[in-house]
């Protein structure tokens, strides 16, 4: 599994998640090293995330501690995240890689070469 984020004219690197993504992993592998620095560089940043269990856990808003605004997401709302459209673009770039990756580790090496993967 990978996690990624987009904003107006840029994106974050993809973060490879090799274990089950729970709220603690989400905080310390995604939010702290990638999201927080990215959004703090913006004047009025609002983080939009879906209602996936790790995103909706009580620990996530506590992590931000009023440093960033969270976009309110209603229960049972349709999946309208704009990043869903980006995955096809990522797939297109990956299909241009030669040779095709046969394992997740090989795929991550391709992502690193393309500058898509967070260290």
From TrEMBL:
InterPro entries: RNaseH_sf (IPR036397). GO terms for molecular function: nucleic acid binding. This is Transposable element Tcb1 transposase. It comes from Trichonephila clavipes. The gene is NCL1_45911.
């Amino acid at each position: 599994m990978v996690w990624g984020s987009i904003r107006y004219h840029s994106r974050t690197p993809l973060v490879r998640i090799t274990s089950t993504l729970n709220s603690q992993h989400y905080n310390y592998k995604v939010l702290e090293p990638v999201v927080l620095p990215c959004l703090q560089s913006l004047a009025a940043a609002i983080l939009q995330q879906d209602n996936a269990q790790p995103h909706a856990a009580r620990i996530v808003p506590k992590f931000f501690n009023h440093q960033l605004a969270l976009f309110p997401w209603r229960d049972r709302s349709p999946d309208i995240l704009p990043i869903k459209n980006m995955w096809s673009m990522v797939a297109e770039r990956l299909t241009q890689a030669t040779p095709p990756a046969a394992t997740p580790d090989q795929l991550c090496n391709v992502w690193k070469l393309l500058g898509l993967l967070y260290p």
